[in-house]
Structure formats: C-alpha cells, structure tokens
Amino acid sequence: MKQIIGLLVSFLFICMVAIAWKFFIFIKGPTQSPSDSIVFEVSKGLSFRSIAELLEEKGIVTDKDLLIIYARFTGYSKRLRAGEYMLDKSSSPRTVLEILSSGKSIQHLVTFPEGINIFEIASQLEKLGFGSARDFVKLAHDKKLIYQLLKADLRSFEGYLFPETYGFTKYTSQREIVEVMVNRFFEVYSEISKRAGNAMDRHKAVTLASIVEKETGAGPERARIASVFFNRLRKGMRLQSDPTILYGIMEKTGEMKTNITREDLKEYTAYNTYRVDALPAGPIANPGREALGAALNPENSNYLYFVSRNNGTHVFSETLQGHNQAVKTFQLDPQQREGKSWRNLRDKKMPRTSK
Q1: Which of 75, 91, 325, 351 sits in a 20 to 30 Å window from 245, CA-based?
Q2: Is 266 within 8 Å of 288 (Cβ atoms)?
Q3: Which residues contact 185 (CB under 8 A, 6 or more apart)?
Q4: Residues 258-285: pLDDT tens digits?
Q5: Predicted structure pTM score
Q6: Environment class of residue 223 by beta-carbon count within 10 Å: exposed (0-12), middle (13-18) or buried (19+)?
Q7: CA dihedral 325, 330, 334, 338 (to 10 degrees)
Q8: Each residue's pLDDT tens digit, 60-85
Q9: Distance between first and last Cα of the chain
Q10: d(C-alpha 170, C-alpha 129), whole Å
Q11: Quick check: 279 and 208 in contact, CB under 8 A?
C-alpha cells in the first residue's frame, strides 16, 4: 500500500513539475526569430476569453487556457483596454498583456488644412470612420460644451478647432477630437497673443483671422489683407468679403456653393458682410497660425481695397479710383482671367470678386 502511495505521489509530483515547466515555457514566450508583427484589435465589450481565443487564433500566444489562468492570477484580465495594438509574435504573454492594457493604441494621422470649416471637418471625420458628419455638426453647436471649453456663449466651435495634423485612435470619440483641437488652439493663440499689436477681443480676432485665411493662401499677404479689413472697420465701411457670403449660405442651407450670384449678395445672413456692418456673427473657418498672427498683428497701411491678380496674389489700393483700375486690369479683361480661375489655383484661397 505504501508503495502504491509512493508511486502515486511521485506521479503527481512529476505531473506538477511538467505543468509548471509548461507554464514557465508559456510565460517566457516563444523564441522564434525573426519576429512577425500584426495589428490586433480589442473591441469594446469583448470578453477576456474571446480576446484570448483571438490571440491564439492569430498565433500571438500558444495556449489560450494558460493565458486565461495567468491573466486572472495577475489581474490583467480586468485591465485590457479597447483599441488597436501592434503585437509581435515573438513577445511573451506578459508583454502582450502589458501592451493590451497600456491603452497606447495605434495612432491614425488626420490632417485638417488651414481654412477648413466645421462642416468639412465633419465630412472628413465621417469618411475616416470617426462617426457621422451629422453628429459632429451637432456636437460643434453644443452650447453646453462650447461654454465648458471656451468659457463663452458662442454659436459654434467654428474658428477654435485648430487646423493641424493629429493622431487619433480608432476609438477616439468626436468629443475627444473637439477637446484636443480646442486645446491646441489655446496653446497657439496664447503664444501669438503675447506678441499682439492690438487689443482686439479674442472672438473678434479669431473671426477676422478666419476671413483672412479664406481670402488668401499667400502667407506674405495675410498681414496686409488684415490691415485692409482693420482700416475698413475703423472707417465704418462694410468688409464685403465673398467667403462670408458662402459661409452664411452653407450654415443656412447646408449647401457649399462655389458661385456667388447677385441674389446672394443681396440676401441677408448673419455672415454676409455685404449686408451686415462690421464683422460677421462669428468665424467662417478655422484659421491657422499665420492668419491668427495677421489678425493680431496687421500691417500698418492705408489700403482699403484689394483685388486678385488671378495668380494667388493681390493688388492693393488706397482709393476707390485705384481699385477700379485694378479691377479693370485684372478682372474685367478676359485675357487676364482666362485659364486663371482662383478655383483652379492649387493651394490658393482667393475670393471670387474684388473688394
């Protein structure tokens, strides 16, 4: 009997050693080389068992059951976070679990160009899989969130979603995107405003910067164009900026027009600077660093008018007579305009008509 018990104990000991060795080898991880990296997604709401099964199925771990035991023993089974992760098949199970619980999901770069508006941002995000455009536009007009982030009662986040290249994960929410872009705006604006040459109110400065951004893509001209608008404001003249007409129509109808008619010039919107005095109701786009700098530090000039040369730059005039001559030369002469439509000029943001 004692002999049988001894044999049984020996057998159990051997089994335990074998199991322990297998577990040790499993935890240590594979030793194959070279490594093979793959993108692994942890979906929201997925159970740990399902995740373990997927890891085994994709060859990242060799035994899902041992992984489950190890994860539950170490607490990793409750710490995994949704996201996309780059995993290496040569990594140990512990390393794999550390990565999946880190929250350091793969970043997808998204570029928002200078002068983009909230409607265009919404459309771009929808195409990239970050929720519906309609939801984003609604969020961009959320009064409670606007006040929370901007500490002001504004119509929308227009003007405050700083245009730049960002890294978002697949599970970044639209609200998080807004928060990141607004925070970046404050960083840039704070830096620029320290060197401001005027004491213009922030919202007015952003509104003016957005118009400057839409009027020209030529960096060196931005401060001069800002000076034109400042001079007109001081004299009580209407800004008469075509991009403001287009934005007013878009906000009202949801339609992005490319041509302005005489009827559009006459129709009142809170943004049509051919009808409203001074600045429009708010920004018409999200200005970049140079446009913000131009609005806060305009050139010192006496210019009141500018007209496109049809090549991305403008002719500036101090008098209506000089302006009319420039219009005659560059806008009314078919030879000057033929094949030079501002819509066909790459990387240029120019108005359809003159000031």
Answers
A1: 325
A2: no
A3: 160, 161, 162
A4: 888 888 888 899 999 999 988 999 999 9
A5: 0.82
A6: buried
A7: 180
A8: 998 888 889 888 988 988 999 999 99
A9: 109
A10: 8
A11: yes
